[in-house]
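Revision sheet: structure tokens.
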Amino acid sequence: MSSKKKRESLKYSTKLAFAYGIGQFSDTIALQTFVFFIFTFYFAVVNLNINLITIVFIVWSLWNAFNDPLLGSLSDRTHSRWGRRKPFIILGIAPLCIVIVLLFTPILGSVFATFMYFLVMAIFFDISYTMVDLNYASLFPEMFQDLRERAKANTIKQFFTVLGLIVAFILPTLFIPKLDDPLYLPNYGFSAIIMAVIVGIGFTICAIFGIKERKEFSEDYKKAPSFLKSLKYSLKNKGFRTFIIANLCYWYVIGMLPTLVPLYGSFILEVGEGESFLLGLLLATTFISAAIFLPLWRYLAVKVGMRKGYMLANTVFIITLIPFLFIDNIIIAFIIFFLVGIGLSGALLFADILLAAVIDDDEITTGLRREGGYYGINALITKLSTIIVILSISLVFNSTGWAVFDPHPGINTIIGLKILISVFPAIALGIGIIAINRFPITKEKYKQIKIEMGKIHQEKREKTREE
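Predicted:
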């Protein structure tokens, strides 16, 4: 292939962005099947004590503190004929699909056996999910190189996020008449099989048609730092430190809302048996709204920059969460959930763009693309948000007498549910705004970064052609 054709092959392609985005569809279904259903399943259906569930999430998060950055560093240092990221994705697909099913087919009869089974399956889920997700996500800033390309590609990617969320929230509820009823435990297992098949198909399509690693970065593995050095370099980056604080707050909200919606719907909105699909529709309404407003936030990303755009999105997000304190009607709930999608849409779009900018800035300093290291630590932070979510829920449930599931909760529990789904997330988003306000990569600085990156990439392309 001539050098001209090589350069042309690196240009933005909507077809490639679409094929890559299909992976996000499966990624979203895998994660949200866990986030949306796992807590209600083990708390209300399996009837595991809230404190045992909390222990599972704490141990799981501690495991993530080692697993995610290690896999990221390993990915950066990998070299194969298929690239750095693709082998991990392909190897992780089948185990991920299997463990999705195993999570919802627990060992029963002994509280200890159920607890240990949940713990082990949660860890296996994280290993297989991280193998796929981390390497899939690491390809985004490599494949799509400037702000406009990333805004366009991320719009397609987040469209598939929304589509995946809709499928994850609605499809299982068609087979589970009441999400918090132990009678429907087998229905969870059947639904998990369906979700696992969909996840496997989407990731396979993405692996075949949607992954393209750039040749000019094929030699970066030789100079990639060790695990501990990668961790040190990443955490010394001011832009990354401010980003992960804001992203931790964002994922806390993303974790809290779907985790609580099944219980919020049952005990505040009074969604009854045979109507669980309404809970999926509520969340689907939020993400359909997010899809509608993605073009607006994409325009703002280019117009006002990443930092200001993210702060604006979080502000809108906070305003739309407050009504959850007061509503108790399913019709009004649909309106509020739609409005929540406006702020969520911006947060979805800007998160990937901000982290990509951090990685670009790091390449100027180190001369290397270290997506794996950064996404590994970011994955750890994302998982830590889960432990904060479960500790928040545990604190409220224990203080209101709901440590063990009771289908007739008192008024204090009802108030606690409302605070958990509105006030707690609003505070987290406020902290995120404060953090991202210190993000050092302004719109003007990013333009300079792109100029410097262009020079570095040209040198790498010339060196690759010479070899």
